[in-house]
Amino acid sequence: MLKTLSKCIREYKTASILSPIFVTLEVILECLIPFVIAQLINVIDVASPDLIEMSKVWMYGGILVAMAIVSLAAGALAGAFCARASAGFAKNVRKDMFYNIQTFSFENIDKFSTPSLVTRMTTDVWNLQMAYMMIVRIAVRCPVMIIFAAVMAFVLGGNLAWIFLAVIPVLVILLMVIMWQALPLFQKVFKKYDNLNESVQENIKGIRVVKSYVREDYEKKKFNRAAEDVCKDFTRAERLLAWNSPIMQFCFYGVICAVLYIGAYIIMDSNGVTTTGEVSQLIVYGMQILASLMMFSMVFAMIVMSMESARRICEILNEKSTLDNPANPIYEVPDGSVDFENVSFKYASNAEKNVLEGINLHIASGETIGIIGGTGSSKTSLVNLISRLYDVTEGSVKVGGHDVREYDLETLRNQVAVVLQKNVLFSGTIKENLRWGNKEATDEQLVAACKLAQADDFIQSFPDKYDTYIEQGGTNVSGGQKQRLCIARALLKNPKVIILDDSTSAVDTHTDALIRKAFRDYIPTTTKIIIAQRISSVQDADRIIVLESGKINGIGTHEELLKSNKIYSEVYYSQVKGSDESAAPAQGGEDNG
Q1: Residues of the chain under the 50 pLDDT cut
Q2: Which CB contacts under 8 angstroms, 24+ apart, belong to 462-468?
Q3: Which of 145, 492, 525, 558 is the most buried (most CB within 10 A)?
Q4: What is the DSSP-derived secondary structure letter of residue 462?
Q5: H or E element that contains 561
């Protein structure tokens, strides 16, 4: 874990080293200051004011002022370098996590929930940043202070200094017991943080559904339950850590009382051998030792809290994508042909049942293929294998005559464009969203792609046209408009294979027919795979595949399947309700949401 996290320090190594150096200088000066004060007290502590050597008073006073200024400067520099190091470390941790998440396959993403990733990128990184800040500064300061103060205490106080050291093992044992009890509670707390974030995310994402069903009270109760769970476990953990302070305070004041009591007898019995300045100096060193132990208990509490955060962050940093480029990848896709050869697939290696099984299929380059089937028939799983969003469990999927695992991933996905069921637009202008498909696309290419996707008309109706700003998630455009923009974005890739995964479900049948006609007329050499629930969306395809429970139930044209495939004919007649076939693609107005 330490090895993984230490890689995130990088350019902040200098700041991480300078901070402890200045902390050490600050501590040394703080330990020497009581020694100088003791000498000053001994100069002043004489029987008659007339015997005070003012030259020594001024000398020791000047030394004290100089040491205090240097100590202050060292402390300020230590704080500045510490802040830079901890903030930079946290920045690098977030960046490394984000970059690694971008490499994840769908299988990796399935392993972690979105709320959990959000918690790890925010709360967990913040805990780690605070722990690192304390480690770089306070965790260095405490042992250095204890060592220097203890040495000075033994030099001045002899056996009296053992009082300070005797309490250290007691405190260490108590702190270890607290850590042993608190760590499992923090492990539970962060899992419940994930549940809390999930509750918030679901509510915000589905706020329109919540309001339309008047379920605000239910969502409030669900959030309260999640918040109460976090509060309960966090309170238990913090209650344990809260014992640090009273334990330390008890030891602190108990030791001071012991030193004062014993020190008074020593001064009276020493006949001037032990001075008041030496005992006062010993008390100061004792306070420094015990104060350092108290500070260390704070560091200890923060480290205990951050240990689980560090583990969760390392899970992300150490996660390797299940999809890697081959040693010598292919950088060119010859054509848009697609072949499934005895393909079986399951999402998890330990799953009992395959999602897809025994798929054998050849799709010629430029062919239009429709895929239809009931919910759960694995239509999306089938097409996800083509762009290698998942890898097959058995068999092989080939594009352009080569196994998809032989291609460079970026090359493959640029040539196999997928418009998924859940269309996503990002905050920015329409132009910026479209150029996700091709960042070098000209304005003319943008318009051409939008005309193919039947999006140009509604874009032109906006006051700012292609410079219209799209809100996050595309909330200021309708579902049908969002789908058409996503289709246009995919077309800008100029792919050899384009997959529409139920991505015209929100447009009316007339617009759907126009999109399909544009595909036939303007991109005839591109292989087109259309997943749909409506028969009208696929009935003019070259071939239609009927899927059932992850297996191919039938393949053929619309007319052939009507005659030979029971599932297809049942779906068709249920949708057209026995009307004439030509009436199925009814004319309709543009979808407005």
Answers
A1: 47, 578-593
A2: 462/430, 464/429, 465/430, 466/429, 466/430, 466/431, 466/434, 467/429, 467/430, 467/431, 468/429, 468/430
A3: 145
A4: S
A5: helix 558-564
